[in-house]
Amino acid sequence: MLFGKRDRVVNRILIVEDEPLTAFDNETMIADAGYEVVATLDRYSDAVATLDKPFLFSNICGVLSSFGMNIIRGHALTNPNGLVLDVFQFTDDERFMELNRDGQERVLQVLEEVVSGKADVAARLRETTQDRGVDRVVEVDLAGNVALDLEVVRAGGEIVVYGSHAPQITLPFFPAIVKNVALIFFIVYNLDALSRQRAIDGLASVLTGGKLVHNVAARLPLARIAEAHELVESGAIVGNVVVDVAAH
Predict the structure, then answer these.
(1) Element containing residue 28 per DSSP (H, E)
(2) pLDDT under 70 in the chain at which residues?
(3) Domain 131-186 falls under CATH 1.25.40.10
(4) 48 pairs with which residues across the strands?
(5) What is the pTM of this model?
(6) 57 phi and psi, to 5 degrees?
(7) Which fold has domain 43-128?
(8) By the 8 A CB rule, do 200 and 215 touch?
């Protein structure tokens, strides 16, 4: 009788671990065993896996924003088969989940409805703002989201752009002009001195007031700087890696 080795069923693994160095060790061990680590998350609820479709990333952002979530970081991983893993880190600054016993279930339900196409994220954002629309959209992919942006921004609102996946953009003229929408492009490296100082002052204000907190995922001494680089390059953590020179 001949015995053969069974084909591996599991090839791609998502790691959930809230301790950065443990997560890094797990990722290294799993990769060395021949598996592909698609991402490492603090919480399982921060990831949405589905088949890719237009506006998926922006729609998920819209759902989280409609519940008052502050999105700190988000990125998408895709494979050639059209599977996408959208990973988000966010804070509940308005304490929606804390103040509502079924808060997490409600967020997950709406996410499921939007991802499956059963719900309209633009309609939800209009409902959240009492049909007024949002004051400002900060856009990282204008080419992909311009139609949705114009649908959810209020009359006289702003679309602030610092990214686009395509160099040429088709702008729906009529929806933009009837709302008197301001389209503002910027890149931080080319800010004039006055605008840069205003930005610094604004950031300093929210930092000293405790309204903005840097997410530090790991602190390492200078002697472990190579490990710090590997942590950043691996994508295994969510947040900043700080190298403490004084600890050297």
Answers:
(1) helix 20-32
(2) 1-18, 38-39, 41-55, 73-86, 235-238, 247-248
(3) no
(4) 86
(5) 0.54
(6) -60, -50
(7) Alpha-Beta Plaits (3.30.70)
(8) no
